[in-house]
Amino acid sequence: MTEQSAKFTLGDKAAALHLRSGTIGPDVADITSLYKDTGLFTYDPGFSSTASCESKITYIDGDEGVLLHRGYPIEQLAGSGDFLETCYLLLYGDLPTQREKDDFVYRVTRHTMVHEQMSRFFTGFRRDAHPMAVMVGVVGALSAFYHDSTDIADPHQRMVASLRMIAKMPTIAAMAYKYHIGQPFVYPRNDLSYAENFLHMCFAVPCEPYQINPVLARAMDRIFILHADHEQNASTSTVRLAGSSGANPFACIAAGIACLWGPAHGGANEAALNMLSEIGTKDRIPEFIGRAKDKNDPFRLMGFGHRVYKNYDPRAKIMQQTCHEVLDELGIKDDPLLEVAMELEHIALHDEYFIEKKLYPNVDFYSGITLKALGFPTTMFTVLFAVARTVGWIAQWKEMIEDPHQRIGRPRQLYTGAPHRDYVAIGERG
Ligand code: SDX
Known about the structure:
This protein is mostly helical. The chain contains 18 helices and 6 strands. Helix 7 runs antiparallel to helix 18 and helix 9 runs antiparallel to helix 14 (about 315-330). The chain is globular. About 40% of the residues are buried. This is Citrate synthase.
């Protein structure tokens, strides 16, 4: 890493801003001493120009549409690997040997059950509660059950908590789904792969054997890979900020789930499918394109645009291929939502407004059609995103905790409220 500096002067005040280069990507100007040296804060409410941390986990080149996990392109991981291998890579930094992989799969598999008393948590929710509301509550409650892995100062407990989160999220997500539809919970099975186990826990019923479809299981596994991690997105930044106070990992992941729920973030897959359903037919697309361009209309094309990608989201391409694979396997021909999606994408990518603003489909644009075809209701789409993203949240949380320079995150502000004024007795007001 090279060290240079830039000089910042304001009147008689000056600060040396050390420039630091990463291995790839933009350099950063270290402003840690700016306030001490000049009395100035920087202002960047959406963090568009602000690096919140140093990380070795994931790198995105938004202009080139590149996504690397520990240096490996997402296309190669999704094409040749599986989700638990990607989990190992994100957590430990390198692809596992066969022995390391087998050991990791064995350890994760044997953490998939949840404490039997957790099943009682669900009965406190209305059956029609949004599954994301259930996930926030039940995952936060994990810290009430697993006290033996909440001491974040203990590396062993950090790893146990990490394995528990990765292993138990599918079980809790499947329980949220079963509770939502009024079916009995299905226990995890150690003879199934991660994705097979998840589909089994969601769609098996006690009355008959559930047949795993290998094509659908592979598609599910690939969807998990595509959603595993994504630099310092809103929910990951939430997990890091929560973790910076020393909160236990289960509580931090619950905070990440809450943030992911928003329609501008992980809730976009549910919103995108609802939008495609609302459009309904190709002839209504121009009406919605017009609304998306209308500054007076809050409507946005869900599944389009991205803070970082100003080119095609590489995950969206793989998601589209997976969508076609699933629809073909299920014999779903001429899916009206897919027809609308592909026509909408074609029109938007040739529209001046979207070209000028560099708005491309993101990972959420095709995921909804795929997840619907797999049998999930739209309310479960963001839950599946949370299941996959848990490994990214945990890997980033661990990296933050293990960073010797880590301090509690405490942003400052530009204050534009009332200056000092004295209290006035109520009888003298007005
Ligand atoms: C995810 O950060 C991550 O990495 C997130 C994620 C991950 O893996 O963690 O990739 C997952 O959250 C993907 C994004 C899913 N969200 C959506 O699909 C919702 C629709 N998209 C937008 O809300 C928006 O594009 C964001 C939130 C994704 C990005 O917003 P930015 O970066 O703050 O951009 P912006 O809102 O400032 O938009 C820039 C311009 C604006 O016009 P002007 O004010 O400059 O005139 O583009 C316009 C916006 O109005 N615009 C859109 C649009 N997205 C942006 N116009 C129409 N439709 C859209 N979808």
